[in-house]
Amino acid sequence: ECDELRQRMTQIVDRMDVPRHCRTTFSTYHDQQLREQGNADYFITSGDKICFFFEKDVFDDKGEFTVPKQQSLNKVGHGETHRSFCLRSHIQKCFLSQGIARKLGLVNPVILQSMYIFKQPRIGGEVTPHQDATFLHTEPLGRVLGFWVALEDATVNNGCLWFIPGSHSSGISRRMVRTPKGTYPLTDFVGRERAYDKEKFVAAPVKKGGAVLIHGEVVHRSAENTSEDSRHVYAFHLMEALDTRWSPENWLQPTEELPFPPLYTK
Ligand SMILES: O=C(O)CCC(=O)C(=O)O
């Protein structure tokens, strides 16, 4: 399954249309602002599509790749990867996620988003310490669960996850919210990420095919990848929809046509 997913992603990247705002030449401060606005628009509308997010400096000032295309992406997300192209059936059938969710007592889990994360060799960027509920906020808290499946060995050298044990029980310190319609930037933060003691993080290396379950409030991070190996991962987030309010201020919003799909097939 891991290899199938990797092959499928190789095809998608081969055929990808690079988003225009990545290709455009940006030379002035104003151009730079346009690029940032393009990035923000692209992100906030990515909830129901396949969108491509690149590592830093993978385009030159003419918009041409400076690295092989297959090694340029940071991640692909956040919607269509689970709504179609077979990955939804991977989530529902293959990754044992239905069985795990049932064992955890989830009554009506829905799939919020999914991401294929590359952590490219040598250039894979770090993911700074955060809690997923900062971006995927519910009332009450404690209803979001990440499934993070290693499609290759994830090691301390190539950027495995690190966690602060016990940090899931201290609430959240920051939320990403949509700003009022017609204003820019499109999202903002309320509150601030706490300063975390680096020494408190514990590494969680896993073998290819291993799954890590991420509590929505646990503080986690991953380091940059300076090794020669990639660290591909398929990650998706579930929400227990029973008696849960999805915040209308979240960046990611379901619509009537595209509600969050249920995890359970029967
Ligand atoms: O894969 C990574 O490096 C980070 C993933 C992550 O933070 C998440 O899935 O919540």
TrEMBL record:
InterPro entries reported for this sequence: Phytyl_CoA_dOase-like
GO molecular function terms listed in the Swiss-Prot or TrEMBL record: metal ion binding
Keywords: Iron, Metal-binding
Domain of life according to the entry: Eukaryota
Iron in keyword set: yes
Pfam families named among the record's database cross-references: PhyH
Cofactor: Fe cation
Record flagged with keyword Cytoplasm: no
PANTHER family: PHYTANOYL-COA DIOXYGENASE DOMAIN CONTAINING 1, PHYTANOYL-COA DIOXYGENASE DOMAIN-CONTAINING PROTEIN 1
Physiological role: 2-oxoglutarate(2OG)-dependent dioxygenase that catalyzes the conversion of 2-oxoglutarate to succinate and CO(2) in an iron-dependent manner. However, does not couple 2OG turnover to the hydroxylation of acyl-coenzyme A derivatives, implying that it is not directly involved in phytanoyl coenzyme-A metabolism. Does not show detectable activity towards fatty acid CoA thioesters.
Family membership noted in the UniProt record: Belongs to the PhyH family. PHYHD1 subfamily.
Protein name: Phytanoyl-CoA dioxygenase domain-containing protein 1
Provenance organism: Kryptolebias marmoratus
